[in-house]
Amino acid sequence: MKKWYLLLAAVLLGQIALHAQIPVMPATGTGGKPGAAGQRALPQIGHIYGKLVDADTKKPVAYAAVALLKLRDSSVVTGMLTKDNGEFNFENLPFGTFNMRITFMGYETVMKRVAIGPKTIDQDLGNLRLQPNTKLLNTVEVTGQKSAFTMGIDKKVFNVDRNLVSVGGTAQDVLKNVPAVNVDIDGNVTVRNAAPTIFVDGKPSTLTLDQIPADAIESVELITNPSAKYDAEGMSGILNIVLKKNKRAGINGMITAGIGTGDKYNGGGNINVRQGKLNVFANYMINANRNWGDGTTDRTNFFGGDTSFLHQQSNSTSSPVFQFGRAGIDYYLDNRNTISLSQAIVDGSFKNHEDLRSTFNKGDSLSNRINNNKFGFRNYTTQLDFKHTFAKPNQEWSAAAYYNYSTNDRNGDFNTQGLTPEGVPAGKSVLQNNNSDGKTTFITLQTDYTDPVGKTGKLELGLKTTLRNYTSNYNVFDQDTTTGQYNFNNQLSNDYKYKEQIYAGYANYSGTVGNFGYQGGLRVEQYVYSGEIPSEGKEFKPTKARPGFFPSVYLSQKFKGDQELQLNYSRRVTRPNFFQLIPYRDYTDPLNQREGNPNLRPEYTNSIEFSYAKNWKNSNVLGSIYYRNTNNLLSTIATPLGKDTLLTTYVNANKNNSYGAELTGKSTFFGIWDVMGNVNLYRTEISVTQDNQTYSNSNFSWLAKINSDTKLPANFTLQVTGTYQSPTIALPNSGGGGRGGGGGGFMQIPTSAQGTIKGFSYVDIGLKKDFLKNKMASLTLALSDVFNTRQYELNQVSPAFAQDYIRKRESRILRLTFAYRFGKFDAQIFKRKNTKADKENQQQNMGDPGQSF
Description:
Elements: H1 2-19, E1 44-54, E2 65-70, E3 76-81, E4 87-94, E5 96-103, E6 110-116, E7 122-130, E8 149-151, E9 156-159, H2 171-176, E10 181-183, E11 189-191, E12 197-200, E13 217-223, E14 238-243, E15 250-260, E16 264-275, E17 278-289, E18 291-303, E19 306-334, E20 337-360, E21 365-389, E22 396-419, E23 430-453, E24 457-479, E25 486-488, E26 494-513, E27 516-533, E28 538-540, E29 548-559, E30 563-574, H3 578-581, E31 585-586, E32 592-595, E33 603-615, E34 619-631, E35 634-641, E36 645-652, E37 655-669, E38 673-690, E39 693-712, E40 716-725, E41 728-729, E42 755-757, E43 760-771, E44 777-784, E45 792-797, E46 801-809, E47 813-823, H4 836-845
Parallel strand pairs: 1-7, 12-14, 32-36
Antiparallel strand pairs: 1-4, 2-3, 2-5, 5-6, 8-9, 9-13, 10-11, 13-14, 15-16, 15-47, 16-17, 17-19, 18-19, 18-46, 19-20, 20-21, 21-22, 22-23, 23-24, 24-25, 24-26, 26-27, 27-28, 27-29, 29-30, 30-33, 31-32, 33-34, 34-37, 35-36, 37-38, 38-39, 39-40, 40-43, 41-42, 42-45, 43-44, 44-47, 45-46
């Protein structure tokens, strides 16, 4: 009987094959121009798969005919017979809506509607039950469309692929234009005036933002109040930078090259190859961006009833060059099991020159310090992922192993020359050399399981282990002015190691009751830390840490007119790092010293957020009000040492409260003009007690961003973005500099309770021209900081000192970038033209149950 079923199925499928028409290119008239259809070919990257089972016995139904039909005329797009295990698999499908027809002797014909769009490229239809002598299965429609920003119950996703002003730049340039995110002149990132945790592809990384090319980024996920599913680290949530990974069928890719004012160059490309069960991708980019910076510090010290003055002027140049390479492979074991392996290597070097002049007591004495140093790094990231989807829709299990290893080295020379009030060299110059090296190892092991419960519920469970080891050696040598020999400086040199271990587990449950949605979860983290200074035989182990419990709750209510209200709560933690804990005093800049505090405690933050979302046909809006209370806020205090020196130490604040309101909206006018705006109004209150002295600070501030994107005739696109930040309290991570005060004496870390950052604004503009067939090539001209207004200015006041600190880096940069895309959305690109033998094979395959057409 099975042979008869097979023969009948082969005949039915043969008829399907005779009429199948896979739309690869549009209808054309003479000269290759679009014909009556007048439409371009849609991307053929859709993937639909599933399994047929008997509704009563639950056994697989083999050799059933599955066909995909056009809605317009029911003509066949493609079809196949199910395999022995009942599975079917369609790849390289175009965007659109189709009817799926399933027929087999003894069963009712099943019609199922499916739609393929940007968000529904890969669809697992699960186990489809064939029932003898029953009514037809209800039609199910799967749809999805991509928007500029989307809001889930616990995160917002900003798609940055159309961000013209960041083309040819780095991740810093991308984040500058993401709503709700603020990036200062040194690349420090804040969200709602607090530091988030930054991930790359959902994992911790030692990469800095200026080491990630903008053209390698797919999207940015902003999670202001993360659920228990996510790491608990980070006061203002998580920023996840998602790198591009192409999955289009066939061979395709892109090459880019750019040039910018002030000796700035970039170039690179990516390629993707996908056919059958394999998807291979690779990309490479190189950036060389010479830039300059300058700054001033004016400080008045009130020491022992005596007043002294310090003025510093710095001029610096930097010549960084870095390369970014990434390659990977996805192997589809079958319809429901995928294994992925990727490897990234980032390599770079920075040559820096700085000239710092210090004037004491309004000209009584002067000194000039010249610093030349070279910094190099290399970063390796290996990631292995496995994903299994069950027949039950939305049920899946995944596991991942992540390994990150990075090294760095630095070599610098300092030449300090004393000067008379007239600027004449006084005495011999003091020469100093320093060199350092360090390495970091990150290992992350993670597994997650998702299981739908009932009709609307969902259970999420997961485990995660994060291990980090860090070592560093910093050696300083002073030149003997008599012999010229360099001698080891034990006071300024140091070495240290530390280990961090985080063991975490979480459980989340979500569901809906009508239009009401809810989600509750609990994350438990055990944090283990140890540090040491090997050369001194010292070890630092905080008191035995207890497991931390981090609950989260999310509630949502949908209303008519595509409206939704959300209320959520989460508890988070920020743990002090080694540099904040180690009781070592950094004398690299004698006038601005730093010292850690081994008695620091972790800070804990409770966040509450209430949001309203509304969608219209051509616009949407998201409004939020929030409150954040932080206990033991990690902060800094600067105190004077003598007449000219400041010592910055880390402390836990007594109190920190922040609350505010945020509004994000996007609208499309006339079908060609997209406008997205974001405004965040907030108030911050902080108080710190040090040496029986209490420092208090409070401030109301606001941040506004607007992005205008206009489609112009002749395939031009114009983009204009503007940002304004009003005066605000300085954060402990604002400003600052590299290890050892690499930017000079004015680069000391500002403090929350003692500092206020002055307001600033800037405007970026970009123009893009698409040309060649199907817009395969483009030219983008972008000008950042059009009015050259972007700078960092800090004012600090305390009973012991007053200071004004100004920094300016090169920010008005004109870039021209060329991009060319190549390839086809067609897996047939690998297949030879049919020869006689090929045709014979094809005829033989008509009877092959596993062959698809």
